[in-house]
Amino acid sequence: MPISKDSPHKTAEPLPLRPHHLLCTEFFKGYGYSDGFSANMSEVISMLNADDPAVTLTAGTDIICRKCPHNSGGRCDSCEKVGGYDLAVLELLWLCEGDTALWSELKKAAQEKIISAGKLLSVCGDCQWFYICGK
Fold first, then answer.
1. What is the DSSP letter of 112?
2. DSSP assignment, residue 12?
3. Alpha helix (H) residue ranges in the chain
4. CA neighbor of 7 nearest in space, from 125, 107, 79, 77
5. From the first residue on, what is the mean pLDDT of each consecutive set of 10 residues in the chain (135 residues)?
6. How far is 60 from 62, CA to CA, in rounded Å?
7. CB atoms within 10 A of CB 7
8. Residue 40 CB contacts under 8 Å (≥ 6 apart), including other chains
9. What does the buried/exposed string (b/e) look like for 26-36 if buried means 16 or more CB atoms within 10 Å of the residue's CB?
10. CA-CA distance, 14 to 103, in Å (whole number)?
11. By CB distance 3.0 to 4.6 Å, which of 4, 21, 109, 125 could disulfide with 121?
């Protein structure tokens, strides 16, 4: 099923989400940069899966980044590295920054076109957390 870029959404405003976080949320195990980051990540994943909100793909900080120690005043201090992950995900999903779709549609597309297709290593193989995801 193709992703509908104009999906109806359940909340008034779509939630911002970095494209590479579609992958991170699949493999998150409770490890993280800090307790605050891990707690936020767990809450976000639970909310996304329970509510299936619309999300807008962004290259900026998002709802997961808000508790990340690399978030420096709303800007990722690792933006060059993670920006590459974002671009790779967008290319493989045939999407663009600013596209909006339901969480479930984006999650399914990432699973089919990246994870199940064996492309995870090429997207984010140099990530410090890849040892968890790449198993």
1. I
2. S
3. 21-27, 35-51, 79-93, 103-110, 120-124, 130-133
4. 107
5. 45 87 92 83 94 95 84 79 93 97 98 96 91 81
6. 6
7. 19
8. 64, 66, 67
9. eebeeebeeee
10. 10
11. 125
pLDDT tens profile 79-118:
788 899 999 999 999 999 999 999 999 999 999 999 999 9
C-beta of residue 41 within 8 angstroms of C-beta of residue 55: no
CA dihedral 125, 102, 46, 71 (to 10 degrees): 50
In this prediction the pTM is: 0.86
CA 42 to CA 117: how far, in whole Å? 26
Residues sharing a CB contact under 8 Å with residue 79, sequence separation 6 or more, in sequence order: none
Strand partners, 57: 17
From the list 132, 128, 114, 116, the residue with the least C-alpha distance to 20 is: 114
Cβ proximity of 67 and 59 under 8 Å = no
Q: Give me 44's structure tokens.
A: 């976000």
In contact, 47 and 87? CB cutoff 8 Å: no
Other beta carbons less than 10 A from residue 79's beta carbon: 15
